[in-house]
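Researcher: I'm preparing a figure for a lab meeting and need a structural model of a single chain. I don't have an experimental structure, so a prediction will have to do for now. The sequence is pasted below. Please return the structure as tokens so I can convert it later.
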Amino acid sequence: MPSPEVEQYFQTIEINTFSVNENGEKLVFSTNLNGEYNLWAMDLPHSFPYPLTTINQNSSLIHIGSDYIVATFEKDGDENYQLHYLPMSGGTPLPLNEGESSSTCYHACFTTNHEIVYSTNHENQLLNIYKTDVRTNQTTLIQKGESAPIVVAAVSPDGTYMFTETYSNTHVAAFYQSTEGRIPLVPDPGITHIIRDVLIADDTVYFTTNYEKEFSYLASFNLSTYEFQPVFTLEKEEVTSIQFSANSLVVSTEKGVSDRLYEYDVTNGELEPIDTPCDIIKKMMVTRKGMLFVLGQSADRTDTIFKRDPDGEWTRVTNTKVLGIQERSLIKPDIVHYESYDGLTIEALLFRPQHPNGYTILLPHGGPQQAVRMKYRPLFQYLVQSGYTLFAPNFRGSKGYGASFEKMVEQNWGDGPRLDCVAGMDWLLQEGIAEKGRIFSLGGSYGGYMSLLLAGRHPEYFCGIVDIFGISNLLTFLQNVPASWKPLMNQLVGNPEKDYDKLVRDSPITYIDHMNTPMFIIHGQNDPRVKTEESERIVNHLKEKGIDVRYLLFTDEGHGFSKKRNEMKAYKEIRGFLDGLVKG
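Model: Understood. Here is the structure written out token by token.
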């Protein structure tokens, strides 16, 4: 079988976010179509894309006004997304507020009278909420974050707004800012819960929450009576986002490793499933005419924007097939389950190559309160097509399996999830899928941390480790995280003073003397979350020990890859590192 080239799996479009105007005739999306992220547009129904910007920066939020576009842009992966303005025809984006050049916009909502209500860490690490008039560029402070980071969640045409307060990754309360003060959307905001998507419909607020439940559901809040009311729940299924569509709500949900769509009729309470054109829904929007747009992907299909007409027919708006590769040749993983050390059931994705080379790659995911799902990953397809078996477990702490499961990683970074990974490898051995000593671990961020920790605590399983943007010392990680994160870290990771011994015990650097397998470590110089010292510390220690270690530093990347050329370079070198050890 000829060896696949990494370029094959990148000859496609990746789309970070999109927006469509009210009549469904203008589509704007952030994509790396030319190898760098820029804004591109389509004048529907024509499907020919044309560029709006040439600044080679990614966007996390786009709004299409009557004759202008507002979007956020970062700078070479630094994640400091700032609001910019540009005309409908495109050009060089202009910052809405020059004074916020070093800050980050966390979310923004738009009114019908050209006002933006947004949250930023400008002037306050707990964030403030501001209002800017796009026409006059006048900005007003409307609320300060005082005890926890605050983020605007929804705004009505008359200026009524909702905001969230984040106490931890699993405790996010929401409030209505009324003339009487702030009113919680749930009866007791002190109970640990999450409120995600919020919509205002006249006198009713709809939102998704897991308040007093294991899985998120749809709830409502009456702005006149302040009454909270559950609307509907689904069995072991997370309701994640909602959009208006006439007298209905379009609802997306997470069911383990994939997503689903429903339509809920607010007049009669009927809930009907909608045929979904992809496995994962990254974003959805509904136009005034009732057209549903979805940005989605699958493990064997890349980012695509789909349109669903009112008659229920789906069409592809963007053509994002992997060029030069037949979609049918891309490998879709099996969904498997195994029992962990304490009887907990863990779900995982298992990619089986057509021509296995006898080596397996463990893929611990990042987050840690995220999950590996049915998403197209160029690296996964590249490696499995190269003969490697890939195993990606959703260990305790992963999203999509209930609130209790997700909380299991809080202040428990180094025990439960690690032992879930070990139990997963033991399951592979028992099933005859893997062989001890012929396993690699490859992960990014928390997955990089876990790969390092496994290498130090369970070296007998591995023949090599790939760490991308990973953490080597939890104490220095906590010291260097962005200021707006610090209030959340005690709950998620631990307190450097009270939990000092545990943080030392759970830090990979503690087990450096047990690490004896070759390593390949990758980092981005502009990483705002995990500083380069986390990688350099491991590299220097391993070199002193005489262990084979490679270090690849990208000077124009942050916590992830924003440029195709860098990602392809990293993946080529990862493949070369793995193949070199296999051929030995």
